[in-house]
Amino acid sequence: MEKLGLSVILCLMMLTIPLIAESKEDKQDDLVSIKNENTYKQMSEEDTSIEPSKLVKELLEDVNVEIDNPQLIKSLNESTINPSPIAFGYRANVYLGHWPLSYQSESSEIKWDFQTVNTNEVNNVNGEKNEEIFYYQIEEKHVEGALTAKVDQTDQIKQMILQKARDQHDLPLTFHAVVGKETKLSKTYTVPTSKIGILKANMPVVKDEGQVILGEVFLELKGSKKNLVIKNVTKQEIGAYIPIANHLTFTFETK
Q1: Contact 215, 102 (CB under 8 A)
Q2: Where are the alpha helices (DSSP H) in 52-178?
Q3: DSSP letters along 59-80, please?
Q4: Helix/strand/coil for 173
Q5: pLDDT at 30 (0 to 100)
Q6: In whole angstroms, what is the distance from residue 201 CA to residue 178 CA?
Q7: Residue 80: pLDDT above 80?
Q8: Number of H helices and number of E strands within the chain?
Q9: Strand 131-136 to strand 225-243: parallel, antiparallel, or no bridges (unpaired)?
Q10: Which Pfam families match (predicted)?
Q11: Which residues contact 84 (CB under 8 A, 6 or more apart)?
Q12: What pTM value is reported for the model?
């Protein structure tokens, strides 16, 4: 009996797993690109990652804290501090500031119907035949992404989170998405007689959560050697909502 019961449970699990997977796929299939139809030409944000110079790469390899802040790497690339090779006994600590060092993503998911950006409605309560409704953007709509906590150096942290989110999702992510007025799609939905049809267009976002690592950065000079030293390292829980540019999901209902 125990073996029979276990077999039944396993069979039920095998039946439910494909259904769950199919549900997620169906939801992603509902993601509609409006890149060609969008009357507001959304400029894609450039990749902000910066390649460290040979010297900076060597400095980063000797540090026990991960550093992937592109602004910090850029600052180090532009550093002109070069101790003389004959500067015996020379020592100095150069304080470069308190920086966000890296962002570690712990979870990343898509919120498909995050914010409604448009509602179209057709009243067919007194109609004698079925009517059609289609998506038509009534007003220009801006959707701003945001961090989930207050932090200093917001722009730098946004850049790091955006880059990590892009690594996980093959989607045009941006902290500022716009849907232009009079954007429309040809797909229609049927509104039966005696019904009101409501078609909502929703902006999806990626919700990414994790930790930002912060610390004080010093450049330590010893004779002809140069080392990067990180002190007072702290971690802060943080996340972000990042809109998916030029993409919408739709919900249609009759009442």
Answers
A1: no
A2: 54-61, 70-77, 154-168
A3: HHHT-SS----HHHHHHHHT--
A4: strand
A5: 81
A6: 13
A7: no
A8: 4, 10
A9: unpaired
A10: YfkD
A11: 90, 224
A12: 0.82
- Cβ atoms of 52 and 76 within 8 Å: the answer is yes
- Position 54, amino acid: K
User: pLDDT tens digits for 52-72?
Assistant: 999 999 999 999 899 999 999
Q: Are 199 and 133 in contact (CB under 8 A)?
A: yes
What is residue 81's predicted lDDT score, i.e. its pLDDT?
62
Under the banding of pLDDT at 50, 70 and 90, the label for residue 2 is: very low
- What sign for the dihedral angle of Cα 14, 20, 21, 23? positive
For residue 210, the surrounding DSSP H or E stretch is strand 195-222
Tokens 């060597």, located at residue:
58
Round the CA-based radius of gyration of the chain to a whole number and report it.
26
Four-point Cα dihedral 23, 29, 31, 32, nearest 10: -160
Residue 152 is encoded by which pair of tokens?
A: 């200093």
Torsion of CA 89, 95, 217, 55, to 10 degrees: -50
**Tokens standing for residue 127:** 């109609």
Predicted local confidence at residue 49, as pLDDT: 80
For 148-183, what is each residue's pLDDT tens digit? Answer: 999 999 999 999 999 999 999 999 999 999 999 999
Amino acid at 85: P
